[in-house]
Each structure stands twice: as structure tokens, then as C-alpha cells.
Q: What sequence folds into this?
């Protein structure tokens, strides 16, 4: 074999190895996504109170209390999310200007951070309000649900699209805004 043929052969082998590793990597990640998807706990938006009733073993009185708490939380969280959306729009608009005002961008970023803080504090208060209505066994179940919800990898999937409900403030797959 002459030198040119050897070079072409090695080049072909290297390309084959790269292609095989790409295919293997793609397959591995698809399997990981499938496993994560199978382990998610769905929390249907329309039936969140029923979901909690089933998961926590709530009686009708507790269910009504939770419905009220959830309504209040959604109202507060939605207001914060609307403010966050407006701030993000303002930031994008500022970034689109020919001469960006970096001081203004820093201020907007600070406001976004403060709104995220407010959203987390609202979520914490929602959790504490719910917890105060439960017995010890129910509190342990609530803790499990919330801890999985607020984990970085989010094993509990909240409704997509409406940007409301528990734990939103971290975007979708979203997500960490």
C-alpha cells in the first residue's frame, strides 16, 4: 500500500469511530431521557387539589382549605410571573437597542433576581400554609412531593404552558430562568 492509501484508510477509520461514538452518545441520551420521563410524577393542572387529596389522603375539609390556599398562591405567583415577563421583555428591548444601557440592564437583572426571590418566598409560604393544616404523616408526604418538585432535575412535572402552579419560577426543562 502506498502512503496516500494508508492516509485515506486511517481517515476512514477515524471517521467511522467518530460516527459510532456519536450514534452511541445519541442512543445513551435518548435512553436517559426515557428513564427520567418514566419517573416523573404528573400533577394535572385542573385536578391539583384532587391530586393532593389522593397523594396526601385529605378529607373534604382539608381539600377545601387546600383549594383556597392554591387559589391564593396562583394569584400571587401569577402576578410575580407577569412582572418577570415584563422585565424580561424590557431587557430584550434594551438589548436590541443600538447602544445598550448597561446600567439599565444591570438594574433589570437585579429586579429579575428580586422577583425570583419573591416567587420562591411565595412558594415557601404556600408550602408552610399547607403544612400547618396536615398531620405528621401527611406532612412527610407533602415534603416528599415538594422536595421532588423543587429539585433541580424536577421529578414532579407541573403543568406546562400556563406558567403557574407550584414551583414555577424555574422555567421549563425549562428551565432555570
A:
Amino acid at each position: 500500500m502506498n502512503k496516500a492509501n494508508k492516509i485515506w484508510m486511517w481517515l476512514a477509520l477515524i471517521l467511522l469511530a467518530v460516527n459510532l461514538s456519536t450514534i452511541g452518545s445519541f442512543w445513551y441520551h435518548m435512553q436517559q431521557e426515557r428513564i427520567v420521563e418514566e419517573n416523573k410524577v404528573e400533577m394535572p393542572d385542573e385536578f391539583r387539589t384532587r391530586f393532593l387529596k389522593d397523594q396526601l389522603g385529605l378529607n373534604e375539609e382539608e381539600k377545601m382549605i387546600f383549594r383556597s390556599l392554591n387559589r391564593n398562591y396562583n394569584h400571587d405567583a401569577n402576578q410575580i410571573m407577569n412582572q418577570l415577563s415584563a422585565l424580561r421583555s424590557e431587557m430584550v428591548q434594551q438589548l436590541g437597542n443600538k447602544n445598550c444601557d448597561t446600567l439599565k440592564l444591570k438594574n433589570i437583572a437585579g429586579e429579575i433576581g428580586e422577583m425570583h426571590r419573591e416567587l420562591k418566598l411565595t412558594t415557601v409560604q404556600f408550602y408552610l400554609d399547607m403544612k400547618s393544616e396536615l398531620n405528621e404523616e401527611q406532612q412527610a408526604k407533602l415534603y416528599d412531593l415538594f422536595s421532588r418538585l423543587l429539585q433541580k432535575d424536577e421529578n414532579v412535572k407541573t403543568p406546562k404552558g400556563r406558567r403557574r402552579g407550584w414551583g414555577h419560577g424555574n422555567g421549563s426543562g425549562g428551565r432555570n430562568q
User: Anything to note?
Assistant: Helices lie at 3-39, 48-56, 60-96, 102-131, 136-150. The beta strands are 41-42, 156-157.
